[in-house]
Amino acid sequence: EPMRSVPVRLRFGHRSRQAAITGLGHGTTLNRVIDSDLEVVELPLDGIVLSSTLGDILGAQVGDRIILEILEGARPVREVVVSKLVDEFLGTSAYMDLTALHGMLREGQVLSGAFVQVDSSMLGEVYKRFKETPAVVGVGLKDAAMRTFKDTIESNIAIIIFFNQIFSSIIAFGVIYCAARIALSERNWELASLRVIGFTKGEISYILLGEFVLLAMIAIPLGLLLGSGLAALIVATIGRTELYRIPLYVAPGTFGIAAAGIVVATVFSCLAVRRQLDRLDLVGVL
Prior knowledge:
The chain is an alpha+beta fold. The chain contains eight helices and nine strands. The strands form two sheets. The protein has a six-stranded mixed barrel. Strands 3-4 form a two-stranded antiparallel ribbon. A hairpin with a 2-residue loop joins strand 1 (2-12) and strand 2. Helix 4 (142-186) runs parallel beside helix 7 (252-277) and helix 6 (201-238) runs antiparallel to helix 7 (252-277).
């Protein structure tokens, strides 16, 4: 499937931005325009399609006419209508139907490259032939690029998540343990008095530690709600740039991991305080 890439400077009013128009054939399958909802965007037969970010930069909306200053060849200047805005994850892109792009530039079947589907068993031979062809400037393998991208992102994200989980667990344990120790020091004589009049260790533990377990159970859903709001705030502030747009998606397993971390921290904190309850000074209380 052939493609044409043309460097241009787009102007709308007093705003301008240098970019490249990618011309794609109608009904292509090897390289398609995909929006943020993972839906295929069909290129209109006339007009230009801009990414929503590029549209915001130029201040252009659907139906506006923008000026294109071609930055190659005879450098003609053309005017074209914005037919559609598409919300993409990466870059500031512009697209046109390949035939419409040729017509606008008043050129023949000039191409910048092509997307090729190759039998996997012949990939090595085809790649070698392309690399040995003088007219071919460069060859890219989509699977290799995707694999490298995913490996890099996954390794970085895994490290970030690991350390965040460690630090958050330590903080949670520290907060719960300190609160339990303070409560124990404030109610030390009362709890010891209950032991003297006949309460068992398990019963006074239930009185003190049951309160923290209840508070933890109430705090977990509130914390998950607050965390979701914080994630939305981060995406809104630093997750939408000209280079990339990060969608807000919280996997159900994320809530489970966060809740499990608080439960584990609460259990260990209660066990640590429980040992101190076993060493209350009953003689001093008497």
